[in-house]
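A.,

Following up on our hallway conversation. Structure tokens first:
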């Protein structure tokens, strides 16, 4: 098993700056398809991410954070609502919500294409409290009737129904990659010019929002499309990283590394703007990814990434598909340079933000039942505990590296239930992080108990399930 070399010291001193008495700003930065070991402070031996590494030294770095799903749309819905994708019936990316994959042994369930208006979002919570709310970048949660403006955002730039641009280079539009779906474009890039790069342009808009907010508290939901395909780094950066790849290098895609560099540079630009405006001590910063790194191949047959020592990647419910980086800086209250090994998930973000902004009572008054819980206490005491033992996952779909599957993590145990052949696999993550040894036979009683828990939870969620494909049986 590969050794992870951490660039972030586990210092647990409380941040020295004093908390501003005004409502804290929320800067949430969401990367796309960024794997658990994609950052320098999470062990990458190629990607250079000095700004994010510095953020980790100033905040809490979670080592066992999970996306609620193994693909983008469901996780993004969980972040907005604090609800699990299984409950929302949004368990696959939007473009495939109605795709039943009739050539497979099982028919996938038809899912919701849009995030319904009935669901209360983090933006609505903050908007009601007087925040300027802005969404920039990837949305992927519905058609125009369900765009960010319909879910509590005052400003929306760069988002639409699609999950990836045709290109990261100006004019960010075309039909080359997605011919079956027709023409794609990224709205709101009106002042873009030839040679401009999408990650940079989204940051330009973010800087304008921070300036426009003035003294009002803001919630900036900055959702970069990078490091999702198309794998298009800046050529000069890709050339540099190509020269850094050696025989023992784990990460080996120079353009993918270049995309990480651009992401990190732009995170640095945003944080520099916050500091320049004197807002650093009243701005909570949250950085995370929506699922594990994509382990498929890109043009030329080169593998995009690996998530070693984790098994598999995006699409799979093995650790490589759902374990993600999560860094949170809470000025004046959270620990600086701390690591937290408590398992947390993206459904926890809404209740956490509510508590950090003093708006938790609003959720209680409205009796809004969430699947996530606040993890704010872990930012103050990273070695603390949560009153939750189990995390659940449900992906009743096919991907290149999986068939329909659900999973439960309970303590160090993780059980996966596959629907095609009804098999279960059981792993002890403390002893076997790479999930190489299935112990379901040796630990049959534990497997039985976890299977029962998983079935009960799925029933509680009223989850959708794949069904046997009669055409496949005929063949």
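Then the amino acids I'd put at each of the 475 positions:
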């Amino acid at each position: 098993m590969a050794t992870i070399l951490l660039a972030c010291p586990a210092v647990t001193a409380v941040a020295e700056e004093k908390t501003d008495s005004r409502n804290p700003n929320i800067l949430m930065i969401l990367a796309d398809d960024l794997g658990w070991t994609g950052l320098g402070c999470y062990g990458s031996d190629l990607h250079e991410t000095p700004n994010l590494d510095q953020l980790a030294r100033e905040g809490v770095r979670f080592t066992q954070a999970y996306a609620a799903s193994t693909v983008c749309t469901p996780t993004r819905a969980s972040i907005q609502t604090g609800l699990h994708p299984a409950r929302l019936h949004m368990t696959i990316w939007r473009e495939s919500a109605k795709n039943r994959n009739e050539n497979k042994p099982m028919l996938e369930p038809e899912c919701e294409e849009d995030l319904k208006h009935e669901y209360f979002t983090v933006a609505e919570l903050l908007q009601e409290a007087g925040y300027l709310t802005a969404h920039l970048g990837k949305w992927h949660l519905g058609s125009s009737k369900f765009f960010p403006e319909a879910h509590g955002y005052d400003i929306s730039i760069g988002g639409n129904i699609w999950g990836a641009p045709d290109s990261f280079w100006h004019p960010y539009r075309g039909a080359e990659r997605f011919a079956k779906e027709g023409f794609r474009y990224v709205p709101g890039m009106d002042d873009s010019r030839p040679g401009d790069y999408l990650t940079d342009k989204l940051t330009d808009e973010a800087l304008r929002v921070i300036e426009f907010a003035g003294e009002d508290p803001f919630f900036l939901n900055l959702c970069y499309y990078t490091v999702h395909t198309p794998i298009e780094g800046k050529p000069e950066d890709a050339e540099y990283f190509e020269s850094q790849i050696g025989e023992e290098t784990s990460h080996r895609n120079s353009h993918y590394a270049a995309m990480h560099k651009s992401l990190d540079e732009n995170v640095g630009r945003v944080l520099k703007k916050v500091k320049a405006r004197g807002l650093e001590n009243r701005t909570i910063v949250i950085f995370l990814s929506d699922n594990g790194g994509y382990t498929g191949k890109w043009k030329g047959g080169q593998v995009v990434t690996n998530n070693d020592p984790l098994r598999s990647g995006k699409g799979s419910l093995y650790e490589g598909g759902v374990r993600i980086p999560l860094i949170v800086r809470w000025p004046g209250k959270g620990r600086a340079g701390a690591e937290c090994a408590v398992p947390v998930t993206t459904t926890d973000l809404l209740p956490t933000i509510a508590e950090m902004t003093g708006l938790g009572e609003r959720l209680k008054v409205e009796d809004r039942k969430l699947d996530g819980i606040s993890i704010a206490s872990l930012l103050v005491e990273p070695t603390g505990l949560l009153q939750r033992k189990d995390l659940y996952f449900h992906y009743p779909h096919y991907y290149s590296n999986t068939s329909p599957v659900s999973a439960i993590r309970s303590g160090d145990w993780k059980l996966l239930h596959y629907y095609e052949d009804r098999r279960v696999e059981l792993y002890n993550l403390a002893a076997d992080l790479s999930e190489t040894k299935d112990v379901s036979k040796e630990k049959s009683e534990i497997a039985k108990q976890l299977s029962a828990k998983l079935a009960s939870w799925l029933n509680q969620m009223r989850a959708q399930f794949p069904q046997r494909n009669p055409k496949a049986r005929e063949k």
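The longest helix spans residues 254-276. Curious whether your intuition agrees with the design.

B.
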